[in-house]
Structure formats: structure tokens, C-alpha cells
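pipeline/complex-builder :: batch 7 item 3
reading input block
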Amino acid sequence: MFFHIVLERNMQLHPRHFGRDLRDKLVAKLMKDVEGTCSGRHGFVVAITGIESVGKGLIRDGTGFVTFPVKYQCVVFRPFKGEISEAVVTMVNKMGFFAEAGPVQIFVSNHLIPDDMEFQSGDIPNYTTSDGSVKIQKDSEVRLKIIGTRVDATEIFCIGTIKDDFLGVISDPGATS
Amino acid sequence: MSVEPFNRLVKLAARAFYDDITTKGDNQPKTGRSDNRGIAVVVLDALTRRQWVREEDLAKDLKLHSKQLRRTLRFFEEEKLVTRDHRKETAKGAKVYSAAVAATGDGLHTGRDGDDKIKLHTHSYCCLDYSQIYDVVRYRLHRMKKKLKDELENKNTVQEYVCPNCGKRYNALDALRLVSPEDEYFHCESCNGELVAESDKLATQENGDGDDNARRRRRDKLKDMLQKMEEQLKPLMDQLGRVKDLAVPEFGSLQAWEVRANAAARAANGDSGSTDPSKSSQGLGFGGTPMPFVGETKVEVAFSGIEEKGEAIKLESGNSPMKILPPWLIKQGMNLTKEQRGEVKQEAKMEGTSSTVDVSDEKKLTGEKDDVKNLQDEYVKAYYAALLVKQRDQEEAAKREQELSNRNISDSVYDTSSERQVGMKSKREDVDEGVDDVEWEEATPAGNTGESSKVHDLNVQADALEDDEDDIDWEEG
């Protein structure tokens, strides 16, 4: 699920940036530092949408670096248990398949794949129904339900299922190309 | 339609789900004396026999401490079975309620003493919320079933993996770390052995260790539980199904209910005498809230009147009591019941209601209907006469024919005639049905001629007659 929230961060700025465009430099550095990171509490920071406020800088003794407390608005993505999500399959193996929903890795074990789909090894490993109408392979798009998340300080990993109504492949790359 | 199936639903649900609810806090020691399990069932049962009830009165009736009752009721409020209403009222305001109770006439409420001593107290009232109860019970059953089924099918469980070499356990959340670049299996982090999914292990090793057995036992237990639940809750589910298409009894909010009940009482007493409580209430009890229900009292009369008698409530309760029953609607409904019941009985009943509901339109309509009825009776008589004549003719004709062709077989004549009689009897029933149809939906069943909906048009009868006779000819020919 995506959220638009306000976060705060203390930015350290090198003295060489002190000039007319100090503020721009500060924002550019913030974006570089923050976007794409993951915090266990808020999830993945997708994008910074604006700066709320920049506090008073504090010059550090010795180094000359200045610390600015910056409040910024950003879009974060955090997966939840029970959430329905769409993901791209990245790897298929005997144990199940891995998929990615943006920055989040999701593993679907073969027990959580419908019973009528069987693993086919070979050049392109895939899960196929007995009549061959549905096929899950690399780059397939699947809709899945997240049934468990592991949230570490710096990463989030999910396990999902496609063994439920309306879950499974939503578009087959083989069919379109 | 009536409140009875819903009461049964409440009672079943109470026994199924609220059987062993105690309202005591967990910190209190559960001695034999303080064990109040089953109180929930008693309270719910008591509520099915009442509509809106003051909690003090209920406590008195049940010989419970009011605190205890309140705790139970609060629990039910949280469970969404009961609606409650609290209001500050004076002695006079309380009278409104008493009058309303008297009007419902269930005889359970004895007149309370010491009404006048009450100065300005907050009183709580409670009432079953049938429509919500229906939804709540259904939802509860659904959740129970879903949970058990999910567990049974291992739907939402996290897969576990075991290393057969070192016995280290992983689950699916570790998958990213376990996947190896060489092959398509998961590998143990410490010994690089190939991991085995745990349920596979169960399948291969039929008589595995205790852990596996526990797993299987658990599965059996779940299956057992699901089955038990199905059969033990079957009465409840049946009742839910029965209640599904019935209109839910609504008592409305406390104020609306009071106004209605008082109005009913007033009407029952012939518009005299008992008007005082509700009048006094308008100033005090309601605090000047507008009452949109005043205008409709006339119509509610028929509704609560019937309910009071304890008769099975027929069509009136099918519509929610807030609505006016327009005359045409009543008429249609009546005819519907007529279909189900005998005609004669229906007639009596119709007259009864027309006398209680003094709407002029209604009378006109019933008068019209009587006309229709007379015509139909006449029609039936004429039809039977015609039928008899025709039959006799045919019998004679048949006899003549038989005599001409063969005088010996007299038995066969008897047979055919008797057969015909049987046929005729069934025919008659058909005709009856036809008649019912005519009065039911004012459009003529035989009205292929495009006549307007005037039933007392003689053409229709003629048509019907002809049609029926045609049928007979066809059957015998």
C-alpha cells in the first residue's frame, strides 16, 4: 500500500555547498540519500514530493559540516499481510516462484500455487495447468495475496499465495508477443 | 413475516454462541456463586418476548441485579444484537413509556409503583435489533467456516523447510537467502544440504516422528470440528434460511415506537380517554423533537391491532411498520392470502379489516370486490348447470351410440361414464383456480380479447365459459 507521509531527517552538508544554491544542494542530496531506501517502519521510500521545512543548521565542531533537520513529504510503499498486489515474476523454480512488486520481493511457494498447476522444468521453467491454458514463467504478471511479511530494519520480504479466487496470471507474455 | 421466526433465530443463536459467556471480569475469582454463565441466554430470551423495554423493568422481571443486567446488555450491544437508548426523563416522560408498554399488551409488565418519585433520571432502554442480528449471525457463521476451511487447506500458512542433514528449520520468509544459483532447490545455509518442504516429508514418511503425527492429528481434529460445526449449527442455519425472505420486524427508534404504541392504544380504546400520556410527552419527554409519525397513526392501527391479538401476523407486518399501507396494496395482499386460505374465511376476514380501517377508499374497493364476488358465484353456478346439462346430453348420446353399435357391452358404458366423471371433477378444480386468478390480478386469464381490467364485464365470463367448454369437447373428442 502507498502512503504519502511527512518524514524528518538530519542532513549533513559539506561546507563547499554553502552558497547561493545551498537549499537546492540540500534537496538534491536528500533525494539521493533517501529515495529507494527502505525502513522497517515506513516501508520503501518511493519518491520525495516536497520539502516541508528546513530547520536551523548546526555547525559541527572540527569538521565544518552543517547539520540541517529537514522535514519532507514522500511517497512510501509498504506491503501488508492480506494485501492483494500485482507483481512481475522474476524467477521460477521447483520450490515456487519469486516475484517483484516494485521494490518488494515476494515468494510464492509451490504449496500456495493452485493444485492444478504443475512445475515444468526445462529451458524456461514454468508452472502450467494441465490443459496448458495458464502458464507462469519469468516476466509473467501475477496478482497475488500477501500472507506474510518479514520486516527487517533495511528490507522487507513477503510471501504470497495465488491459491484463491481471482488470483493468478493477469497477462501472459507469451500470448501478447 | 411475523416476529416468531426471528425470535427462534435469536434463541438458537443465544444457545449456540452465548451459552457460556460470563460477564465477570477476568480478575475476579470464579467461585460457584459468581458463576453467571447462561445469563446471556436468559436475557436474550426475555428480550424476544418484549419490544422496547426499560432496563430497570427487565431487571425486575428477571430478578437480576440491574448492574449485572447492564453488563450483559452492554456486551450484547457490542455484539450488535441489541440497540440501546439512553435518555433523561422526568416522571411524566417515564409515563409515556409505561403507556406504550401497556399498549403492546404483552402482559409481562406489571404496573410499576413509585413512578411519581422519579425526578430526572437517565433511563436506559433496550431492544433487539432483528435485522442486525440476522446479519451478525450470518457473518459469524461465515467467519467460522472460513477460518476452519482455510486452516484445513493450509491456505494461509507459511511453508516450512527442513534440512535433512542438520535438522535446521527455515520457513518461506527465508526463501530469498536459501535460493542457490546452481540449481532450483533451496540449500541449507550451514551445511548446504538440500532442503525439504515439511509437508512433503509428511507425505513420504507415513509414520514419521511425533511432530508429524501431531500435524496430522491436528488436521483430523480440524476436519472433525468442521463437521461437528456443520451438524450442530444446522438448526441455526436452517432458521437463517427460513428467515431469509421474510420481512424483518422493525420497532424503530425508542421514540418512534412509543408514539406508535400509544397511538395503537388510543385507537383500541376508541380514541378516548388514554390520550393524556402522549400529549404530556410532547412537551417533556421528547424535548420538542419533531415527530414525523403522528400523521400515520390511523394506518398503524390495523397493524398493531392484529399483532396484539397474537394472531399470526399476515401481510401487514410484512411491510415495515413505518410505512402507510395504501389501499391498493392492502387489497392485493388480501387477495394473496385468499389464495392460500379458504374463500369463505377470507370474506369474513376482509369485512373485519374493512370495519377497523376506516378509510373511505377501502370501503369502496371492498364493495367493488363484493360485486365481483357475486358475479363470480353466479358464474360458477351457471357453469355447473351448463356442465351438468352437457354431460347428460353426452351420456345419452353415448348410450345411443352404444346401443346402436353393440347392445351387449353394457359394462363399457359404465366405465366410460365413470371415467368421465373423474375427469369432470378435476376439471372443476381447474375452473376454481381460474376464478381465483380472475380476482387476483384483475386482468382476465381468459382475456385474450383485450378487455380492460374490468372484471365485472360479462364478456369475460362468457369467454371463460366458452373456453372451458371448448376444453371439455377437446378432451372427450
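note: Chain A has two domains: 2-77, 84-176.
queue -> next item
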